[in-house]
Amino acid sequence: MLVVGVAPERSSLRAGLSAGGGGKLSRLLASVVFLFAVNAGSPASAQQAAGGPPPVTVANPVIKPVTEWDEYTGRFEAVERVEIRSRVSGFLDSNHFQDGQLIEKGDLLFVIDPRPFEAEVLQAQAEIERATAELEFASKELERGEQLAKSSTISRAQTDTRRSARSVAAASLKSARGALQLAELDLAYTQIKAPISGRISNSRVDVGNLVNGGTTQSTLLTTIVSIDPIYFVFDTSEADYLKYLRLNQQGTRASFREAKNPVFVRLMDETEWTRKGVMNFVDNELGPGSGTIRGRAIFDNPQGIITPGLFGRLRLVGSDEYMATLVPDSAVLSDQSNKIVMTVDGEGTVVPKFVTLGPVVDGLRVIRSGLSPDDQVVIEGIMRARPGGKVTPEMANIEPEISAAATPSTASVQ
């Protein structure tokens, strides 16, 4: 009974292949015959054996404007990140924050024992007083020498010596004042304050330990990262970079370097694209090893939910708006690397068509080529649609699956 049911199907299949040009469709023969053999005992096969073409549901493709969006995986990075190190060496005297808390710029974080630096300030102040006294004495000596030189009581050489002594005393005073400023700076550096606002890490040094400061090997005390706003960094391929470049040249979309194009991001456990930001940087070269170029977007993070280092998924504009042809993804069949859609002509004959696929939009697959708006696509009962065979089409409508998780008029590459 299986042989009787399959023979006419093969005959009709050959007729369909002959009518459709057959070259590529010939590869479908084995798979189609197998599917019909498996379904030979189904109600539809019984109905066909009784003389009526099997029923299938058909619909015209959906034609709607679409803007494609490309997606990339990347990581969040802090806009500002600072390693807190001491500018002076000394023993850590106190810690003034809780590990992991949010801090504001200027908040006191650590205090280095200030007593040695206070002593240096006193010494510098004393040096200023000594230099000031020496300058006053040298000035008076020069004044007396000039008066005596007028009456030729002392020689011109002695006058010049006194003038030189006054200049040396003035220079010593300036040096003492500079030493005082350095001492006061060192004293101020004993209070380590937050240079930026953000979230602080844990303290890396306990109170009482010696801190090395003022060198390239200074002790790391902690780190601070800014929270709001926050960067999202990702890499894109050379092919995508060229695509965006051509879109800019065609005038359909401004370059990321020239305009703040909108982007959307979601965390790994999120399904909705509710976090909106803008592109703010594209690197100046492609990596010679990876062949990719780095891009960066910036997002508001007022509640501090997004933490630097988190992975996310970013969506950005990948095409200009165009009228797209869409069908349900379930209506697309695969034959090795080829994609096929079954259609029904005006006489009820199944006509397979090779198509080129695009992304998924609102639950429907974009068909870049191979279908026309008037084609009747088999969307249900596709297992009963044999190439070249007869069917009884029942018209229906294709409804997009629009959800709150989808960005309006966007497409994600699958």
Report on the structure:
The protein has 414 residues and is of the alpha+beta class. It has 4 domains: 2-68 and 321-395, conserved putative lor/sdh protein from methanococcus maripaludis s2 fold (Beta Barrel), CATH 2.40.420; 69-78 and 227-317, Elongation Factor Tu (Ef-tu), domain 3 (Beta Barrel); 80-108 and 199-225; 115-189, Orthogonal Bundle (Helix Hairpins), CATH 1.10.287. The protein has 6 helices and 23 strands. Strands 1, 2, 17, 18, 19, 20, 21, 22 and 23 form a 9-stranded mixed sheet that branches. A 6-stranded antiparallel β-barrel has the order 3-12-15-14-13-16. A hairpin with a 2-residue loop joins strand 20 (350-361) and strand 21 (364-369). Helix 1 runs antiparallel to helix 2 and helix 4 (115-150) packs antiparallel against helix 5 (156-189). It is elongated. The model is unreliable at 1-47 and 404-414 (pLDDT under 50).
